[in-house]
Structure formats: structure tokens, C-alpha cells
Amino acid sequence: MTTTAFSTLPLSAAMLANLEALGYAAMTPIQARSLPPILAGSDLIAQAKTGSGKTAAFGIGLLAPLNPRFFGCQALVLCPTRELADQVAKELRRLARAEGNVKILSLCGGVPFGPQIGSLEHGAHVVVGTPGRVQEHLKKGTLTLSGLNTLVLDEADRMLDMGFYDSIAEIIGQTPARRQTLLFSATYPAGIEQLAATFLKNPQRVEVESLH
Ligand code: ADP
Ligand code: MG
User: Fold this and answer.
1) Domains, the chain, ranges and CATH?
2) Is the pTM of this model over 0.90?
3) Ligand 1 in contact with 54 (CB < 6 A)?
4) Which of 42, 78, 123, 180 is the most buried (most CB within 10 A)?
């Protein structure tokens, strides 16, 4: 179906070629529904099952407006665990191959601060991390979010289950009000509505039922 072709989106030729090289022949349903509003700059709440391609949906979205010449954090993806953050960082690095020299840094707990601080000093365009460690870097002043364009709350339902609401709220307090906020979740418990009502502006809502 032509409506699911990535080429219907306002993406660079380099990104389209990269998606083809990755074997992404067509958009998955959540990508087809969420990418048009994301690329138009809208806030978004997207709900779809695990394995439906949510990472590429927000990944393509956050890379599109990114300026590789500005070495500040332009996009922040918050994830519930280190394993998920590392998976997201890996997928973002694959997607970013088209964009030239884009630095994607994973910032999670359970490892020493030193190397993370060194990497931050060299500059990172995109940070993927767990709320606790990101908050600690903000407190130390080793991470600044004043140039942030895109904030992604990935697996928001799990982050709430793990008690990260206050951390998320504190992190968001250090981001510019004009940011774009994208919330991705596999389920839609009541806490998500509160999170969205507090931190998203007129979000588009996209829900994709089971793939099978
Ligand atoms: P979710 O976050 O929804 O659980 P992921 O983003 O981890 O799902 O994606 C699941 C798998 O689908 C990954 O291996 C990813 O590389 C692959 N994938 C994503 N988008 C596409 C696409 N358009 N075509 C083919 N494979 C895709
Ligand atoms: Mg995911």
C-alpha cells in the first residue's frame, strides 16, 4: 500500500535511503499513524504493543529536526531500564547513520559517572537514559537541557510502575517549554493520563490494536 511507504513522509533522501538499507520497506501501523503528526511538530500519545516499531517512530521523528553542528542535547529519551535504554540507543544509532556525525549517548545507572561525564563534555546530540541517572547529571550540572527540542517518554507505563513520576517531573522542569513531547506506552493506565495532562500540549492520540 502506497500510504505506508516512508517516501510519503517529509524525510531527507539520505534518511529514506538508510531506511531502505535497514530493510524497512514500509511503515508499521504505529509508524504510519504517528509519524505525520510527529514530523508536523505535534505532541503525541502513542499506544501500541511491544514489537510494533515504536522506537523508529520516535527515532525518525527526533532525528528529522536535529542539527548535527550544534553539540548540545537536542533530544532526550527516557526509558525505564538500562537494557531498554541501550536497545533504544542502538536503534537510534542505526537510524542516525544517514544524518552525518550524530552522537547518541546512553546515560544509565549502575556504571561510574566518570566516562559518562567525559562523553558529555565532548557533546552529545541525543541522550537516552533512565530517569534516576539523568536527574543526577542535571543536579551535577554535567547535562544541560536548555537546547532540547524533543522529549520522549518511552515505555511510560513501566516508568510509572517503577515509581519514576517525580523524577520525570523534575527532569521536565529543566526543559524548555517550547519542546515537543512524545509519550509511548504499551498500555494506558490512569497515571498516563495524568502525566499527559500535566506535561503534553494538545497531544494527538494514536492507538494501534494488536498486530494479529
Ligand atoms: P516496540 O518499541 O514497539 O516494542 P521496536 O521499536 O523495538 O518495538 O521494534 C521491533 C522490531 O521491529 C525491531 O527489531 C525493529 O528494528 C523492527 N522494525 C521497526 N520498524 C520497522 C519497519 N518499518 N520495517 C521492518 N522492521 C521494523
Ligand atoms: Mg519500545
Assistant:
1) 2-207 (3.40.50.300)
2) yes
3) yes
4) 78
